[in-house]
Amino acid sequence: MRAMILAAGFGSRLKPLTLSLPKPMFPVLNRPLLEHVLNYLSSQGIQDIIVNVHHLPDKIVEYFGDGTDFGVRLQFSREEEILGTAGGLKKAQSFLEKETFLVINSDVLTDIDLDKALSFHKEKKSCLTLVVRQDADPEKYEPIELADDGRITRFVNASIKNPPATTQRVMFTGIQIMEPEIFFRIPSGKFFGTAEDVFPAMIKEGLPVYGTLHEKYWIDMGTRETYIQAQADALDGKLSLKIKTSKTPEGPLIVPPVHIGKECEIAQDSQVGPYAVLGDGCRIRSGAVVENSILWEGVTIGSRATVKNSIIGSDVSVEQDANVTDTSRA
Q: Which of 2, 164, 210, 292 would be a feasible disulfide site paired with 126, CB 3.0-4.6 Å?
């Protein structure tokens, strides 16, 4: 089975960081987010992958090349004008149209079993299967109503609070299995959405559109909070990621769990952790505190500065005595 990773978006909720680095290149335990998605697909037996790119595309293409270094066969679909989720699929039709294929968002980390999802898709003879999950507050995302047999009955406006008794309300994970017939429903060369335009029309026509419910680890890193949370979860062992081992320096106050890159300088009387990730070449000065935060490479935290619940972009210097909390700096 081939796969497409949707990676063309602007990552607007993560500005100002995305002004200089596309979200698929955001470091997660010091490896690009997209690299973790590729590792996941490869671990599930998928090696032939296409990625659509639009925002700062060269940063992605130059890093990953043809995928050889990552154990996959990789192609890129460049969108000069952003085409939306369905429009992006249409542009990649020649790569995907020969058989059942998978589509996944580039900002998802998960260990969902794709073989199980594919078996469900085939058993139901579905033309479209969305991988869904239960959530305490599905209205945070675009909620979906799911019948007892797994058929999707509708995408729901979040203001509609009471689903019919015969359905349950679930959320879409950004992972979907499709049959090539979907391409006949997408116009060429224009902006078009899957959840907005294609999927509701298919449901309305009564086509076999299903949701398969999975309960394994999943997180969507679309916000500062979830980007930090995903790395905390990985440090806690809730999600297994392929990473280089972090060596904890001796001397400074290190409060586990942490992940520290190469050639970092950490003052003896500073504190790093808990839940801190330091990129290569970071410098933590005397009396500084870094907690529940992600520092990209080359960051300097000045003397007695405090950084909590924050993301600090590459080569940024935080001034001495600063208090940086619940924010992003680039």
A: 210
Contact call for residues 170 and 137 (beta carbons, < 8 A): no
Which tens digits make up the pLDDT trace of 196-228?
A: 899 999 999 999 999 999 989 999 999 999 999
Structural domain containing residue 263? 244-329
Can you tell me the distance from the alpha carbon of 91 to that of 239, in angstroms, rounded to the nearest whole number?
A: 33
* The pairing of beta strand 306-308 with beta strand 323-325: parallel
Task: Please report the pLDDT score of residue 241 as a whole number.
Answer: 87
Does the pLDDT at position 166 exceed 80? no
The span from the CA of 144 to the CA of 153, in Å, is 8
Angle at 241 (CA atoms; ends 239, 246), nearest 5 degrees:
115
Nearest residue to 254 via CA among 277, 237, 232, 227: 277
| 72 token code pair | 């996959």
Alpha-carbon Rg of the chain, whole angstroms?
21
CATH number for 297? 2.160.10.10
132 and 64 in a common domain = yes
Q: Does 49 share its domain with 173?
A: yes
pTM exceeds 0.70, yes or no: yes
Give CB contacts under 8 A, 24+ apart, made by 72-76: 72/38, 72/41, 72/42, 72/46, 72/47, 72/48, 73/47, 73/48, 73/49, 74/38, 74/49, 74/50, 75/49, 75/50, 75/51, 76/50, 76/51, 76/52
What is residue 158's predicted lDDT score, i.e. its pLDDT? 46
Average model confidence (pLDDT) for the chain? 93
Give the 3-state secondary structure percentages of the chain, helix then strand then coil, rounded to 5. Answer: 25, 30, 45
Rounded Cα distance between 185 and 225, Å, is 36
